[in-house]
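Subgroup meeting minutes
Present: P.N., E.W., G.H.
Scribe: E.W.

1. P.N. recapped why we're keeping a running log of single-chain structure predictions: easier to compare across weeks, and new members can see raw inputs and outputs side by side.
2. G.H. added today's entry (352 aa).
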Amino acid sequence: MESIDSSSQAKAFDETQIGVKGLVDSGIKEIPEMFRATQATLASFKSPPPPKHLTIPTIDLKGGSVVEKIRGAAERWGLFQVVNHGIPVEVLDRMIQGMRSFHEQEPEAKKRFYSRDHTRDVIYYSNFDLYNSESASWRDTLGCYTAPEPPLLEDLPSVCGEVILEYSKEIMNLGELLFERLSEALGLDSHHLKDMGCAKSQYVAGQYYPPCPQPDLTIGLNKHTDISFITILLQDNIGGLQVLYDGQYWVDVTPVPGALVINIGDFLQLISNDKFKSAEHRVIANGSSEPRTSVVSVFSTFMRASSRVYGPIKNLVSKENPAKYRDFTLTEFSTIFGSKKIDTPKLHHFRI
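Output recorded in log:
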């Protein structure tokens, strides 16, 4: 009976097409029942704090020992921040402001983009797994596919279209550089990952986390790993992102001015045969008085079909270190992702 009730609540919320931002604008003082996190999720926020020495690696891409630092971070954390990445701070600021401006428009201006068809060029929605999860998250999203074929400017929201196209080009250049360094960190030729098509596809999502009247009862984004080779995250100064270290400590990814967060996705863990680690991360509900805005750039075909076959890179497999995964297509992976709760692990489906 409870699941039927939560499903009808989700449907009623979805049909308003106003997102979480619309709930906040309506002046609610208590969050609806469907947003109340499970006891297990709430208990995980009371886990022991990490030791003081555990801090997210920050890597200067124009500094020394870049490959070694990336290797260490990708193996131990699956996540790191980069500075001196070549993207002007002014572009980063405009991108954050553009996404914030989209979400803060009048509802009618956003509704023409509202959909749950995640293969569409441009899509606005609240909660990817709204109908699959045990509880909804306090977050709205604007997403679009920006590579290999960028959308037309006239198909994008007018308040942020130009900066999305500009930013995604900058991120593509940075992504290609990072794939070169990651290839070298795996002991491969610098073009190996690019030649496999890892840098070919990009999906950009502007995440908006409105202030929450009861942040201790819900979550911004449930724990998950990304269906990507890598993900590049631009976050504002509010904070809230956490990464799981060593399976036991949730560590804050504190915003560093001008920095970008890089996390290893499931695809790179799989093709590196577990050499690199896909970072499990989450976002706590926004308890500040300001909205939190972030921009996620996923190097992946996301929910679009791709028949290309991937598996552990042959150069990384040997008799002493046999393949830990079977071959797969990105379509197979995204189908599993789309049918589950966002916090459901995916990699075990492909383990040998």
